[in-house]
Amino acid sequence: MPRTENDTWDLASSVGATATMVAAARAVATKADNPVIDDPYAEPLVRAVGVDFFTKLASGELTAADLDANDSGQSPVGMSRFADGMAARTRFFDDFFAAACAAGIRQAVILASGLDARGYRLSWPQDLTLFEIDQPEVITFKKTTLAQLGAAPTVDLKTVAIDLRGDWPAALAAAGFDASAPTAWIAEGLLGYLPPDAQDRLLDTIGELSAPGSRLAVESVPSQTVADQDELRERMKESTDQWRSHGFDLDFSELVFLGERAEVSAYLREQGWQVEATPTNDLLRRYGLEPLDSDEGFADVVYVDATR
Ligand SMILES: C[S@@+](CC[C@H](N)C(=O)[O-])C[C@H]1O[C@@H](n2cnc3c(N)ncnc32)[C@H](O)[C@@H]1O
Predict the structure, then answer these.
(1) 14-307: CATH number
(2) Are 85 and 280 in contact (CB under 8 A)?
(3) CB-defined site of ligand 1, < 6 Å
(4) How do residues 169-185 score in pLDDT, each as one tens digit?
């Protein structure tokens, strides 16, 4: 279903299902030979959501090889490369938080936390407060499921159940956020699901709430001209067509907002952030994973690490 202004979801539907999908990819990546990440909660969380395709993928009943095999050899992106991409992405944000904590930051915010289990699987300084923001059904599901699994947070974890298109700064403040303290922010797998102007507002607001010494890590998605959009929609569809025969029923092209959007690095530099930008292929190489062919699905995503 196409996006609407105030649409909502759970983890089995619409944008919420993308959180389940990336958690399934983390489960696959966790079981890889020489894994780049270790997310023991990814598989049980995906199982609990109960979408058959993702459960089979997370449990290994359906392998990346099953999904990628076709007459021509490989589907345009392929699940195996998607799992590598998600492994590198997860590790980038894990490393970002480790560096921010080592630099003395004691307040962290995960924007659009989905099934991210960093509040349960990473080791954090004792005096740090971690805030997670996502839609209410997403927040409640993860919290309840992890409690049922017997998992306890490894940090002072505060959840903020609100849409990021609404007044989330007020909700964050009500949860105890201190705008005078340096903060480490992450936006992982989020910007593409926000319209371009909402992306600008989000970055502006983060800037306003960031005391000196704050850091921000963002997965930045490319801008598309009107001419590029049809081709991109077609590529997104082709990437997942093959998975459909195994029960996959998401259409990413309906969930993301395409169009011209600000280039995050330049936007943040203008706001006084010092920015380091790492293209996907450099990130894959950093963690010992094969780079993508330059025309593969998410090769033009850039990982931004900014400091104020
Ligand atoms: C691809 S998932 C990424 C989840 C998580 N960051 C990760 O990498 O595992 C996208 C997430 O963005 C959240 N999201 C997207 N738009 C949102 C909005 N307007 N308000 C709150 N959450 C949003 C979804 O609920 C979902 O959890």
Answers:
(1) 3.40.50.150
(2) yes
(3) 15-16, 18-19, 22, 112-116, 134-135, 138, 163-165, 188-190, 193
(4) 999 999 999 999 999 99
